[in-house]
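Subject — a protein and its fold
Fields — amino acid sequence, C-alpha cells
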Amino acid sequence: MPSTLHLRAGLGQRSQHLVICGNDGLIHRLAQELDAVSSEAVTVVLPSRRDGHGAEVLALHRDPRSPVELLVAERPDERILRAAGVEHAAALALTYGDDQTNMTASLLARSINPSVRLVIRMFNRDRGRHLELLLDRAAEAHTGHDDASTTILSDADTAVPELVAAAAVGTGHTLQIEGKVFRGVVRPAGTPPQTTDLATLAVLSGTHMDDPLNEDSAETRGASGTQLLPDTATTYHRQFTHGRLMLEEVTHHHPPEPSSRRRGYRAWLRDRLGHLPWRIFVSREVTAVFGVLGVAVVLLASATALVEDGPLWKAIYLPLLDIFTMGDPATEESTGRQVLQLIAGFVGLAVLPLVVAAAMNATLAFRTASANHAPDPGLQGHIVLIGLGRIGTRVLAQLCTTDHDVVVIERDPQARGIALARELGVHLLLEDAAAPGVLDRAHISTGKSLLVLTHDDGENLDIVMAAREINPHVRAVMRVYDDDFAATVSRTMRACYPDALTRSRSVSALTAPSFAAAMMGRHVLGVMPVERGSLLFTVVDVGGHPELEGHSIHEAFKEHEWRVLAVGPATSRRSTSSTDTLGGFRTEPPAFDWRPPHGRVLRHEDRVVLVTTRRGPDVLMAGVQPRSTVRLPHPGN
C-alpha cells in the first residue's frame, strides 16, 4: 500500500499539479528545481523515505513553504499513479533508472490522463523515439487533437554538452541547443571577427567589459552603458572602441568523422600498421627462448653431420624432426644416430613448452598493445578523457566535433565506447588511469584539459589529484554522483590550485533543469546574464507572429528586443532515414540553420531560435492567439 506523509490536500482531487516518479538522485534535484521555479504543487513518488534521496525529499516536504508532497511506493502501477493524482495532473516526469519501468508507467499514465504532459527518462535512444511517437498517437486518438506533449530526455545527452564545454572552453556561460554547445565570449575592442562567432549579443561599455557575465559583481555596479542586441551600425562603429559580447559556437556543424574517412583509407591503414607494437615479438623473453632452441638445433645438426653421411640440409632436418617428435624411430640406423635422436627428444620436451608459452604470451601482449593507439610524443594542448561508459561515449563523440585532439583512457576493453574511439581514430590507452605512469603516457603534462567520467567518485578524485601533481595548471572536469561531495571537491581544489580551473559536475544537477523546463512546458532554452540585464534564448513558431511572418531576417530584427539566430522547420519530427550511425553513436543533421542569409524570408511553416531581452517575449506575444505547444527536438530524438 502507498503511504503518504502529512498530506496537505487530497492528491487524487488536485488539478494541474506536477508529479515526479523516480528512484535516484535525479528525483531530488528535480523536486528542488520545481520547488524553486514553480508555484504548482509537486508530488514525489519514490520507493523509500529512508535512503539518502528519500531523506532529502522528505526534508523538502517538511518545509512549510514548500509545495512538495511525498508518496512512498515500490513501483508506479496504475493504483499508485491514480493515488498521486495523475488523472488531473498537468505533467508527469518518470525518472527511474530502468527504461522498462518508465515505459510501462508512461503507457499507464497516458491511458489514465490522455492530456497529461509526459517527460520520460530513457537511456535507449531508438526505444525512446518509438515510445514518443506511440504516446503522442495515443493521446491524439483519445482526445482528437495533438496538444498533449511527450518529451523523451536522456540525462547523458543533457549533461554531455555542459561537460564538453567545461573541458573545451572552460569559462563563459554555455548553452545547449539541439545537442550543440554555444557560449558567450567577450571580444576586446579592436578584435577582428572570428569564424566561430554567430551574432553580437551586446556592445559593452568601456568600464564594464571585464566580467559582464558575472551576476554577482553586477549587483554592485552603477548604471551601465552596455547595449543589449544593438543594430548593425552600432556594432560596426563601436567594435574598435568597445568590447563586444559574442555568441560563439563551441561545437561545429559537421558530425564526427571516422579517421579513415578524413584521411583516406590507405593513409589510415598505413598509420595504424605503423603504430602496431611489432617489437613485442623480439622481446627479451622471446629471443631468449628461441635462442636456446636455435643453439640446440645447431649442436645437434653438427653432431648429426659427424655420425651420418649426407648433405648439410639433412643434418639440420633430422634433428628438427626429432625435437618436434615428428620423425620415425631410428631402430635400423647407427648407434650414434639413435643416441642423437634420444637427446633431441629430451631437448624437445624441455624447450617446446617454453617456446609455446613465449609465443602465446607475445601474441597476447601484441593484441593488448595493438588495441592502444598511443599519442605522439610531441602532442600538446589536447584533452584527456577517462572513462568510456554511457556518458563518456557521448562526450567523446561531441569532443570530436571541436578542434581539439583527444586522448582516451579506458581500462575495460569491452566498454561501449571502444568501438567509437577506434572508428574515430583518437588516441586510446586501454589501461587503468590510476596506475602509475598511465597519465604520463597520455601526456597530461602538456594537456589542456582532463575529463574524468568513471563511476567511482573516489577514483575520479584520485585521478584528478594525480594529474594535478603532474600538471598543476591542467583544467580538470570530474563527474561526481553526490552533489554535496561535488561542491566540497570544487571548493577544495580551487583553494589548493587557485590558478587552475576545476569543475565538479553532478549529472543529476546538470539534467534537472531540462526535465523541469519540459514539465512546465517552457520554451526558454537558456538564460545568459549580462551585467544587470539578461538575454533569453527561446524557440518560436513563425506562424501567427506578424512581427516575424513574411519578413526577412534582417527586417525581423528589433533593436534591444530580439534577434533571429537560427531558422528551421516548424515540425519537430525528423526522418530517421537521414541519420547516420557512427560506432553505435547516432549523429543527426541539425534541424536549424545557424547561419541563414539575412535576406531569408520567414514563412508561416518556419520556426526560429530567438535571443531576446527580458521584455522581448512580451512584445512579441502581444496580440498573438494561443497556439499548440512548440516542441523542440530533444537530444535523444
